[in-house]
Amino acid sequence: MNKNKARGSALERYIVSKLRDKGFAVVRAPASGSKRKDHIPDIIALKSGIILLIEVKSRKSGNRIYIGKEQVEGIREFARKSGGELFVATKIKNILRFVKFNELKKTEKGNYVVDLETIKKGMEISDLVTYVEGKISKTLDSFL
Questions:
Q1: pLDDT 10s digits, 64-103
Q2: Global pTM exceeds 0.85
């Protein structure tokens, strides 16, 4: 396994571990480099009926992370079918943030990019957990 792939896999395992520690049911489903035609996100996390779909991207240096058009469209189709909320977990310059997919910008060639400024505005993992917990509906008897 090359260094980039190993670094990406380690990041995926880290995110899975952190989400599990916060009470999520989590599946790591990496497909990069495989011969699969369908595109699925790297991580699927569930908690109390909320579905998070997370594509993980990291770069050692630079100010942007690019994602191919076909991959974005495939993952969006997966999200449409599952009803999940799409995020890209980005790690660049040791900054790990979760950015909603709708914040990706389309390039002239039709691919997608997220820049360092957008990444810095993204959610930390604790913010992501708080975001999900805020969406979980509670029954009246849970307040007794």
A1: 999 999 999 999 999 999 999 999 999 998 899 999 999 9
A2: yes
Distance from the Cα of residue 20 to its chain's centroid: 15
DSSP line for 90-134: EEETTEEEEEEGGG-EE-TTS-EEEEHHHHHHSB-HHHHHHHHHH
Sequence-ordered alpha helix ranges (H) in 3-88: 3-21, 69-82
The SS3 of residue 34 is coil
| Residue 59, helix vs strand vs coil | strand
Active site residues: 32
- Say what angle helices 125-135 and 3-21 make with each other, to 10 degrees: 40
The pair phi, psi for residue 7, each rounded to 5°, is -65, -40
- How far apart CA 63 and CA 114 sit, in angstroms, is 9
